[in-house]
Protein backbone atom coordinates (compact mmCIF):
# COMPACT_ATOMS: atom_id res chain seq x y z
CA UNK A 1 0.00 0.00 0.00
CA UNK A 2 1.41 3.37 -1.01
CA UNK A 3 1.88 5.80 1.85
CA UNK A 4 -0.16 9.02 1.54
CA UNK A 5 1.97 12.00 0.54
CA UNK A 6 0.98 14.03 3.62
CA UNK A 7 2.28 11.27 5.90
CA UNK A 8 5.64 11.25 4.12
CA UNK A 9 6.02 15.03 4.20
CA UNK A 10 5.01 15.20 7.86
CA UNK A 11 7.59 12.56 8.82
CA UNK A 12 10.30 14.31 6.81
CA UNK A 13 9.57 17.69 8.38
CA UNK A 14 9.62 16.38 11.95
CA UNK A 15 12.75 14.33 11.34
CA UNK A 16 14.38 17.55 10.14
CA UNK A 17 13.48 19.59 13.23
CA UNK A 18 13.51 16.84 15.88
CA UNK A 19 16.48 17.93 17.96
CA UNK A 20 15.75 21.66 17.68
CA UNK A 21 12.09 21.06 18.50
CA UNK A 22 12.97 19.01 21.57
CA UNK A 23 15.33 21.67 22.88
CA UNK A 24 12.94 24.55 22.19
CA UNK A 25 9.89 23.01 23.88
CA UNK A 26 11.45 21.04 26.70
CA UNK A 27 10.23 23.53 29.35
CA UNK A 28 7.11 24.81 27.56
CA UNK A 29 4.71 23.31 30.11
CA UNK A 30 6.19 25.53 32.81
CA UNK A 31 4.59 28.55 31.11
CA UNK A 32 1.23 26.95 30.30
CA UNK A 33 -1.08 26.45 33.30
CA UNK A 34 -3.98 25.62 30.96
CA UNK A 35 -2.05 22.73 29.43
CA UNK A 36 -1.04 21.44 32.86
CA UNK A 37 -4.61 21.71 34.11
CA UNK A 38 -6.05 19.74 31.20
CA UNK A 39 -3.33 17.11 31.31
CA UNK A 40 -3.82 16.83 35.06
CA UNK A 41 -7.57 16.29 34.61
CA UNK A 42 -6.88 13.63 31.99
CA UNK A 43 -4.37 11.91 34.27
CA UNK A 44 -6.78 11.95 37.21
CA UNK A 45 -9.56 10.42 35.13
CA UNK A 46 -7.50 7.60 33.60
CA UNK A 47 -4.89 7.01 36.32
CA UNK A 48 -4.68 3.43 37.57
CA UNK A 49 -7.15 2.05 35.03
CA UNK A 50 -4.66 0.82 32.41
CA UNK A 51 -2.02 1.87 29.89
CA UNK A 52 -2.07 5.26 28.19
CA UNK A 53 -0.74 6.09 24.74
CA UNK A 54 0.77 9.49 23.94
CA UNK A 55 -0.04 9.28 20.24
CA UNK A 56 2.03 11.73 18.26
CA UNK A 57 4.36 12.09 21.22
CA UNK A 58 7.16 14.04 19.51
CA UNK A 59 10.24 14.16 21.77
CA UNK A 60 8.28 12.74 24.69
CA UNK A 61 7.88 15.86 26.80
CA UNK A 62 4.23 15.11 27.62
CA UNK A 63 4.88 11.38 27.91
CA UNK A 64 7.37 12.17 30.64
CA UNK A 65 4.99 14.60 32.30
CA UNK A 66 2.15 12.06 32.36
CA UNK A 67 4.53 9.48 33.79
CA UNK A 68 5.39 11.95 36.56
CA UNK A 69 1.66 12.11 37.35
CA UNK A 70 1.62 8.35 37.87
CA UNK A 71 0.36 7.07 34.52
CA UNK A 72 1.54 3.87 32.84
CA UNK A 73 2.30 5.70 29.59
CA UNK A 74 4.20 5.06 26.37
CA UNK A 75 4.74 7.16 23.25
CA UNK A 76 4.11 6.66 19.54
CA UNK A 77 5.32 9.02 16.84
CA UNK A 78 5.52 9.03 13.06
CA UNK A 79 9.04 10.49 13.07
CA UNK A 80 12.00 8.22 13.88
CA UNK A 81 13.97 11.37 14.71
CA UNK A 82 11.40 12.38 17.31
CA UNK A 83 11.33 8.87 18.76
CA UNK A 84 15.13 8.90 19.07
CA UNK A 85 14.95 12.25 20.90
CA UNK A 86 12.23 10.91 23.21
CA UNK A 87 14.26 7.81 24.05
CA UNK A 88 17.28 9.94 24.93
CA UNK A 89 15.23 12.26 27.12
CA UNK A 90 13.24 9.48 28.84
CA UNK A 91 15.16 6.20 28.67
CA UNK A 92 12.90 4.70 31.32
CA UNK A 93 9.82 4.95 29.07
CA UNK A 94 8.84 3.07 25.91
CA UNK A 95 8.66 4.88 22.56
CA UNK A 96 7.88 3.36 19.17
CA UNK A 97 7.55 4.60 15.61
CA UNK A 98 3.97 4.40 14.38
CA UNK A 99 1.22 6.12 12.42
CA UNK A 100 -2.09 7.37 13.81
CA UNK A 101 -3.85 6.23 10.65
CA UNK A 102 -3.04 2.58 11.43
CA UNK A 103 -1.90 2.07 15.02
CA UNK A 104 -0.19 -1.23 15.77
CA UNK A 105 -2.28 -1.62 18.91
CA UNK A 106 -4.99 -4.13 19.81
CA UNK A 107 -8.64 -3.18 19.98
CA UNK A 108 -9.61 -1.78 23.35
CA UNK A 109 -6.12 -1.90 24.85
CA UNK A 110 -5.81 1.66 26.19
CA UNK A 111 -7.33 3.35 29.21
CA UNK A 112 -6.36 6.69 27.70
CA UNK A 113 -5.19 8.16 24.41
CA UNK A 114 -3.57 11.58 24.17
CA UNK A 115 -3.54 13.22 20.71
CA UNK A 116 -1.87 16.53 21.56
CA UNK A 117 -1.61 18.64 18.39
CA UNK A 118 -1.14 15.40 16.47
CA UNK A 119 -4.36 15.60 14.41
CA UNK A 120 -3.39 18.89 12.78
CA UNK A 121 -1.41 17.52 9.84
CA UNK A 122 -4.12 15.17 8.55
CA UNK A 123 -6.33 16.62 5.81
CA UNK A 124 -9.72 17.27 7.44
CA UNK A 125 -11.60 14.99 5.03
CA UNK A 126 -9.45 12.09 6.30
CA UNK A 127 -9.71 12.94 9.99
CA UNK A 128 -12.87 10.88 10.72
CA UNK A 129 -10.96 7.67 10.02
CA UNK A 130 -8.11 8.77 12.31
CA UNK A 131 -10.54 9.59 15.13
CA UNK A 132 -12.19 6.21 14.57
CA UNK A 133 -8.77 4.57 14.89
CA UNK A 134 -8.19 6.35 18.20
CA UNK A 135 -11.60 5.17 19.39
CA UNK A 136 -10.79 1.61 18.30
CA UNK A 137 -7.81 1.29 20.64
CA UNK A 138 -9.68 2.67 23.68
CA UNK A 139 -11.09 0.25 26.21
CA UNK A 140 -14.70 0.76 27.32
CA UNK A 141 -14.58 3.68 29.73
CA UNK A 142 -11.29 4.87 28.22
CA UNK A 143 -10.74 8.51 27.40
CA UNK A 144 -9.37 10.48 24.48
CA UNK A 145 -7.84 13.91 25.07
CA UNK A 146 -6.92 16.04 22.10
CA UNK A 147 -5.65 19.61 21.65
CA UNK A 148 -5.44 21.74 18.52
CA UNK A 149 -5.46 25.26 17.11
CA UNK A 150 -8.93 26.68 16.45
CA UNK A 151 -9.96 27.70 12.95
CA UNK A 152 -10.82 26.26 9.57
CA UNK A 153 -7.85 27.18 7.39
CA UNK A 154 -4.74 25.47 6.08
CA UNK A 155 -1.29 26.83 6.95
CA UNK A 156 1.69 25.96 4.79
CA UNK A 157 4.78 25.88 7.02
CA UNK A 158 8.09 26.49 5.28
CA UNK A 159 10.33 27.32 8.22
CA UNK A 160 10.38 25.97 11.75
CA UNK A 161 12.79 25.67 14.65
CA UNK A 162 15.66 26.99 12.57
CA UNK A 163 15.12 24.71 9.57
CA UNK A 164 13.57 24.88 6.13
CA UNK A 165 10.62 22.47 5.96
CA UNK A 166 7.52 21.76 3.89
CA UNK A 167 4.53 20.95 6.07
CA UNK A 168 0.78 21.52 6.09
CA UNK A 169 -1.05 22.28 9.34
CA UNK A 170 -4.82 22.58 9.64
CA UNK A 171 -6.70 24.65 12.20
CA UNK A 172 -9.80 22.82 13.37
CA UNK A 173 -13.23 23.62 14.78
CA UNK A 174 -14.06 22.09 18.17
CA UNK A 175 -17.63 21.31 17.10
CA UNK A 176 -16.35 19.46 14.04
CA UNK A 177 -13.92 17.37 16.08
CA UNK A 178 -16.69 16.69 18.61
CA UNK A 179 -18.93 15.44 15.81
CA UNK A 180 -16.17 13.12 14.63
CA UNK A 181 -15.79 11.73 18.13
CA UNK A 182 -19.53 11.10 18.38
CA UNK A 183 -19.54 9.42 14.96
CA UNK A 184 -16.73 7.15 16.20
CA UNK A 185 -18.87 6.05 19.14
CA UNK A 186 -17.41 8.32 21.81
CA UNK A 187 -19.21 10.60 24.25
CA UNK A 188 -17.84 14.13 24.47
CA UNK A 189 -17.37 15.03 28.13
CA UNK A 190 -15.74 18.45 27.95
CA UNK A 191 -14.32 21.05 25.61
CA UNK A 192 -12.43 24.24 26.34
CA UNK A 193 -11.31 27.06 24.07
CA UNK A 194 -8.79 29.55 25.41
CA UNK A 195 -7.27 32.68 23.97
CA UNK A 196 -3.75 32.52 22.48
CA UNK A 197 -0.74 33.03 24.73
CA UNK A 198 1.69 35.48 23.10
CA UNK A 199 4.21 35.62 21.62
CA UNK A 200 4.14 32.16 20.02
CA UNK A 201 0.39 31.52 19.65
CA UNK A 202 -1.64 33.45 17.09
CA UNK A 203 -5.02 31.74 17.37
CA UNK A 204 -7.28 30.33 20.12
CA UNK A 205 -6.41 26.84 21.30
CA UNK A 206 -8.88 24.04 22.01
CA UNK A 207 -8.94 20.99 24.28
CA UNK A 208 -11.51 18.22 23.90
CA UNK A 209 -12.10 15.23 26.17
CA UNK A 210 -14.20 12.25 25.09
CA UNK A 211 -15.00 8.86 26.64
CA UNK A 212 -15.74 5.46 25.15
CA UNK A 213 -19.02 4.24 26.65
CA UNK A 214 -19.15 1.16 28.83
CA UNK A 215 -21.67 -1.05 27.07
CA UNK A 216 -21.73 -3.92 29.57
CA UNK A 217 -21.65 -4.07 33.37
CA UNK A 218 -19.27 -1.45 34.83
From TrEMBL:
GO terms for molecular function: methyltransferase activity. Keywords: Methyltransferase, Transferase. SUPFAM superfamilies: S-adenosyl-L-methionine-dependent methyltransferases. Pfam families: Methyltransf_25 (PF13649). Residues 54-142 form the Methyltransferase domain. InterPro entries: Methyltransf_25, Methyltransf_Superfamily, SAM-dependent_MTases_sf. GO terms for biological process: methylation. This is Class I SAM-dependent methyltransferase.
Amino acid sequence: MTEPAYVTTTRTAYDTVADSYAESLQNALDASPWDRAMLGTFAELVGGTGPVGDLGCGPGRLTGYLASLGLDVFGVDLSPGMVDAARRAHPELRFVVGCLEALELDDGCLAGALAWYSLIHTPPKLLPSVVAELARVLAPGGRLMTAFQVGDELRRITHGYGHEVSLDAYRLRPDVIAEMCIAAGLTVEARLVREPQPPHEKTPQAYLLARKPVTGPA
